[in-house]
Amino acid sequence: MDAKEHGDRSGRRPDHERRSAPLPSPDVLIEGLPDAVVVTGPNGRIRLVNAVAEELFGYRRDELIGEPVQILWAERARERYTRNMQLYFDTEHPVRFSTEVWGRRRDGSEFVGEMSWGIVQTNNGPLLLAVGRDVSRHHAAEARSRGVASVAERALAAAGLAELAEEAVDVMRAALPLTGAAVVLRDGSIPASVGAVRTMSVRVPIGAAGEVLVAPARDLDEDELDLVSAMAGVLATALARMHSDERMRHEAVHDALTGLANRTLLHDRLEHALARSNREALQTAVLFIDLDNFKQINDTYGHAIGDIVLVEFANRLRAAVRPGDTVARFGGDEFVIICEDIDEGAALAVAKRLEESIQHPIQGGGAEHRLSASIGISLGDSDAEGLIGKADTALYRAKAAGGGHVELHR
After folding, report:
1. pLDDT tens, 62-111?
2. Which domains, from first to last, does the chain contain?
């Protein structure tokens, strides 16, 4: 054979034959791609699409061929995308990649996609090859994650329950197809809601504190339900933290055994009471109470029974005073009561009710314990430490008189 006819001995075709070899047909190439492919001519009309594009846009292939490519673009983006397409045909551009483009399906719904595009030279001239995929679910998942993170950050920053609940409802309303949403607590209160709460059909508990309720416009998928559960989890954690903080604050100013105010809260309440008394020309009373025979109970029955007696005694003090009065455990078997807006006669009446409540025996450790207490009273409108000291002095006079007495410091 002649090398001129059949190439050189290496098997390579002559240069002029290689240059005239036909380019691969685009329709052969695009069917093997895993993403949607749309091929457009310089006139802006669709030349080719693959099966993935049919599925993505909801059109049959024969419905797309020859149609303006703009039908596949979201209306608000068509003008900009058309300019970009014309620019690509008019100039030499490398392949471009975009992380966010807006497509439009046959049913009119829109989606966000990732797309790369570039000009491909073929035997039939230049074609614009666009390769893309729907990333709406990915973007929606990212938006949901950002929403949960935002509420979680607010919770870590110690935001209030109402603020957290409102933000959680706002995030769910923005990220999910909902007609309503609400956060409902166990006590029936609703710190945040939108839409009709009675129509809620999805309920996710917030621990034991309440529920997150949502009314979906359609059935929620697993990822969307996960968002509701995540919000409930964040709120449950925030509520647990709030309750823990509240408990710590309570414990810081209350006696661990009896639950009464401790010395810190006692002094704070007394300072506030005296400030009001001074402003409004009123009197504040301090009643200092000491059990007369408590040591005998401890020595005979042990400290556990002594604690039972102290708790019951504290409960009786609370029941005997006026609603606005403060009852505090001063230490051991000593207690102090603050009574605002009171005169000498009313203070003595409170002391009498206290004595009557103490007279009834207390049951503990299989025995009946009878108590008596000495009470010292002082009145004034200033000097918290001075008033406590005067009440303490009156208390010792009452104990010196044999116990079970009331003494008023004058």
Report:
1. 999 999 999 999 999 999 999 988 888 887 665 666 667 899 999 999 98
2. 3-134 (3.30.450.20), 138-252 (3.30.450.40), 263-408 (3.30.70.270)
So what's the pLDDT on residue 27? 61
Q: What is the pLDDT of residue 39?
A: 93
pLDDT at 337: 97
Query: And the tokens for 183?
Result: 């956060």
Interior CA angle at 317 toward 313 and 318, to 5°? 120
pTM: 0.60
Beta-bridged to residue 290, according to DSSP, are 334, 374
- The torsion angles phi and psi of 7, rounded to 5 degrees, stand at 90, 175
Q: Is 307 a catalytic residue?
A: no
Query: Which residues have a Cβ under 8 Å from the Cβ of 25 and sit 6 or more positions away?
Result: none
For residue 214, how many C-alpha atoms fall within 13 Å in the half-sphere facing its CB?
29
Tens of pLDDT, residues 201-218: 899 999 888 999 999 988
Tell which residue, 388, 387, 381, has the closest CA to residue 274: 381
Chain position carrying tokens 């471009």: 96
SS3 track for the chain: CCHHHHCCCCCCCCHHHHHCCCCCCHHHHHCCCCCEEEEECCCCEEEEECHHHHHHHCCCHHHHCCCEHHHHECHHHHHHHHHHHHHHHHCCCCCEEEEEEEEECCCCCEEEEEEEEEEEEECCEEEEEEEEEECHHHHHHHHHHHHHHHHHHHHHCCCCHHHHHHHHHHHHHHHCCEEEEEEEECCCCCCEEECCHHHCCEEEECCCCEEEEEEECCCCCHHHHHHHHHHHHHHHHHHHHHHHHHHHHHHHHECCCCCCECHHHHHHHHHHHHHHHHHHCCCEEEEEEEECCHHHHHHHHCHHHHHHHHHHHHHHHHHHCCCCCEEEEEECCEEEEEECCCCHHHHHHHHHHHHHHHHCCEEECCEEECCCEEEEEEEECCCHHHHHHHHHHHHHHHHHCCCCCEEECC
The whole-number pLDDT of residue 28 equals 59
Residues of the chain with pLDDT under 70: 1-29, 92-99, 197-199
Rounded CA-CA distance 50/116 in Å is: 15
Q: Which of 333, 341, 343, 392 is catalytic?
A: 333
